[in-house]
Amino acid sequence: MKNIILISIFFIFSLMAHSQIADVAGLPVSPERSRDYDAIHYKISLSVDFDKKYLEGQNTITLASLTNGLKKIKLDAESILVTDVLSNKGVHLDFYQTEENLFIKTARSYGDNDTITFTVKYHLSEPVPGLRFIEAKGNRPEQVSSDCFPNKARQWIPCYDFPNDKATQEMIITTNSKYKVLSNGRFIRKTENNNGTSTWHWRQENPNSTYLINLSIADYLVVKDSLQNLPVNYWVYHSMADDVERVFGKTPYMIEFFNHLYNYEYPWAKYDQVVSGYIGGGAEATSATLLGEGIVTDEYTEQDYYREYVIAHEIAHQWWGDLITCRSWEHTWLNESFGTYSDHLYTSYDKGKDEGDYDLLTKKNNYLEEAHNRFMRPIVYLNYEQPGDNFNRHTYEKGACTLHLFRYILGDDIFFRVISAFLHKHEFQSVTTSDFIKCVKDVSGKNMDWFFDQYFYRPGHPVFNIRKTWDEENKELTLTIIQEQDKWENVPIYMIPVRLGIFSEGKKEVKEYWIREKTEDIKIHLDTEPDMVRFDDGNYILKEWTYRKSQKELLFQAINDDMTGRMWAVNQLAQYKDEPKTLELWKRIAEGDVFWAVRSAAIEMIGKYHGEDNNDFLKKCAGDNRSKTRAAAIKAMGDLKESSNKDFFKKTFKTENSYAVKAEALIAIGKCGGKSDVSFLKEAGLQKSYSNVVAKASQKAIQIISENE
Q: Which residues form the Peptidase M1 membrane alanine aminopeptidase domain (predicted)?
């Protein structure tokens, strides 16, 4: 969810992670909210006026008292002007408003489990971000688009607006007949009125939290699809018609994948995806996901910018976040870590192991960037000012990587039985980390408290210093593993399983060891010195590590390991950059490795350390079949700042169909060109591209030339 993505909520504070712990710890403690009633149903009837950017109507609320002697009901209501409150018998009830709340005095005192129904009539007092009126612009039609996350439903619906409560709902919306209206749940009917308006009725029949409400109104093109009897629809702009099938066509396939993965059939009446003009990535809403305009790309963009994971991520939220929902915001990982790990599992399933491994590596590195440059904090963390503070790379990427390790420790059978049981047991409920831990114990019989203490309730990650020695006389391999993360406050010395992949005489053997101490020596008797010893074979641990290896071992690893290990070895060979065998291998990998990211890493090393003597080789690599590898080659050539390459860059720009490569070619022209090239760059910058990457590259190139003059 959100443009992390997904929502851009990243702030840069400091370069020292340990200094950030104090900053994060200084935030206020925000425990779960208390309540004295249970919201059961909202029946929301609204008239929406686009011209006036205005709505008015009513919400008929049914709730059950959780206490004896309930005489006053407190609702969340911001930017709403309430005009009347009526009991279910039509009696006017006394009420008053503050800036944040509506207080209603009931006609009598209600006891535990008594049901109360009343109607709040209201209208908006001002434009609000919770329900955005978006102007038409270019191919974007004028629209209304809700933005309820995390606590903005209250800005246009009087309600109880916290995720520890769930209610069913109806949305009955009247607006100009030229618009289509989407909301959660099942479509009931559309009624044409005699005044140029129509009324759309949607009913969400299973309970959900208020931040998952969706109201989207525009002159949409609705493209219908299905998964067997499940309606699947894509609400897009008319200008996007030619791209719908290519962008959204795998949605039923993704839903079916998650049905099997979780062993829980998709839980809602339908699945809609609607394009919104305000959001950057995606925002889950029950049965009706909002997606930013950037999700719809042309055929050339896909080779450069992988957006399919966003669609998969939001589909996964229909279980993780919507079916079960974090009870309060410190448990956000139950929504987002599972959503992020699910999109990784989809990528691995659909794109293959190498792409899946690369995706997981990217997630690890995204977390590490935040840990070093922003803060370190536990995944489950009560200290926050706003709920959005919890939606960061710890919650998304670190949580996903932690689930990957958890899956390895439990084993696939137990792990997937646990998550299926958790979904079934807590369906349509709000949940906590403790609920999940208990489910692990109930299903597996294993007490995994130690794991959650290390990875969820404490900050940080393992930092290993690994040293390897071989005793030829005794035929003994010694691996010394030192945990060095204790330089950070509250970061534990981990108890953790480590897989060692031992390559020897054309064979591979994997041995698992549990480490528990700051320093441990693992001794292994072997017949001969191994060609390679791989630490964390399978890449299960979220870690940093130092592992000095000989050139001979790195040369072997760069050819024989998995994708992650090969790319690591390619980069580690920089220690031996002046050795002829290193360059020879880099060139072999740049042309021949089966995975584009490994080829790109080798190209980067060649350009960085041997570029001047290998310009023609890099030019050859610029013809790779993958655009990202071609872009790496163009960048490496651009960094040489050789004016003789300028014509090649211009030709590349004109003939390429990749926006990423075009952009890199323009920046390269800036590095090796001069004032005479500015006109070419300006004209090139007029070319339309995804996220304006070409125009931005043009501007950057012109700036480089200006700075170099």
A: 250-455
Q: Any residues with CB less than 8 A from the CB of 75 and at least 6 apart, and which?
A: 61, 101, 102, 103, 104, 120, 154, 158, 159, 160
**pLDDT tens string 641-699:** 999 999 999 999 999 999 999 999 999 999 999 999 999 999 999 999 999 999 999 99
- List, in sequence order, every beta strand (DSSP E) within 209-243: 215-218, 221-227, 230-236
Q: What are phi and psi of 344, to 5 degrees?
A: -65, -45
Integer Cα distance of 375 and 460 in angstroms? 10
Which of helix, strand or coil describes residue 339?
Answer: helix
pTM for this predicted structure = 0.94
Does residue 31 have a cis bond before it (omega within 30 degrees)? no
State yes or no: pLDDT of 567 exceeds 90. yes
Please report the pLDDT score of residue 284 as a whole number.
95
Within a 10 A sphere around the Cβ of 429, how many other Cβ atoms? 14
Q: For residues 339 and 244, give the distance between their C-alpha atoms in angstroms, rounded to a whole number.
A: 24
Dihedral angle over CA of 149, 154, 156, 158, nearest 10: 140
Mean pLDDT of 24-28: 83
Q: Which domains does the chain have, with CATH numbers?
A: 32-219 (2.60.40.1730), 226-234+244-282+297-455 (1.10.390.10), 462-548 (2.60.40.1840)
> Bridge-partner residues for 29, per DSSP?
383
Q: Are 618 and 590 in contact (CB under 8 A)?
A: no
Report the alpha-carbon distance of residue 485 to residue 460 in Å, rounded: 8
CA distance 288 to 271: 6
User: 86 by DSSP, 3-state: which?
Assistant: strand
**CA–CA separation, 142 and 406 (whole Å):** 46
User: Which pLDDT value is given to residue 629?
Assistant: 98
Determine the Cα–Cα distance for residues 101 and 358; give it in Å rounded to an integer.
48
Residue 476 Cα to chain centre, angstroms: 45
Neighbours of 264 (CB within 10 A): 18
